[in-house]
Amino acid sequence: MRPPPIRSILRSLDKNVILSGITTMQDVLREQTAARRFQSWLMGLFSALALLLAAVGVYGVMHYFVTQRIPEIGVRMALGACGKDIVSLFMRRAMRFAGAGLAVGLVLALWSASLIKRMLFGVTNTDPLTFLGALSLLILVALSATYFPARRATKVDPMVALRYE
Q1: Which pLDDT score, from 0 to 100, does residue 40 have?
Q2: Do 150 and 62 touch, CB atoms closer than 8 A?
Q3: By the 8 A CB rule, do 125 and 113 touch?
């Protein structure tokens, strides 16, 4: 590796000068921001884990909810309801719960935004685009976690569902 230009310039001026601790500004900046980058990485990791837990939780609750209503689904399908009707029934129900959770979460997020203000660079702690992105992601997760149990409910044979109870 070639020595930095400053090192060779100083050596040419005085061969006896002791050079130590010479580093680039990029290295200084990297060292100064290492703790913040690690904190941000940890926050991202824990956020991803929280999102995964939320998705698994919503899926589990909706699966239980669908399983409890199998006889009703059988009656609805025997009376002519199509799969789309069954899916939309459960999706509407889940979105009511998700909407309530998102409203409470939004209020808590706005309240606690001042706690992370020091860790943000380039955005405010109440950045509307960030909140909109987070809400959109959570709605997408709730829709996805609800769709699969609801779709599975449409595969139920009405006669089997009526005997289920």
Answers
A1: 87
A2: yes
A3: yes
Structure-token pair, residue 151: 């779709």
Q: At what angle do helices 70-78 and 83-112 cross, to 10 degrees?
A: 140
Name the DSSP letter for residue 55.
H
Q: Which two tokens stand for residue 37?
A: 């980058």
pLDDT band at residue 132, thresholds of 50, 70 and 90?
A: very high
Q: Which residues contact 65 (CB under 8 A, 6 or more apart)?
A: 90, 93, 149
Query: Which helix (H) or strand (E) element contains residue 125?
Result: none
Residue 145 burial by CB count (10 A; 0-12/13-18/19+): exposed, middle or buried? buried
Can you count the helices (H) and strands (E) in the chain?
Answer: 7, 0
Alpha-carbon gap, residue 133 to 136, rounded angstroms: 5
Q: What pLDDT is attached to residue 100? A: 94
Q: Which of these, 156, 163, 165, lies nearest to 73 by C-alpha position?
A: 156
Burial of 130 (0-12, 13-18, 19+ CB in 10 A): middle
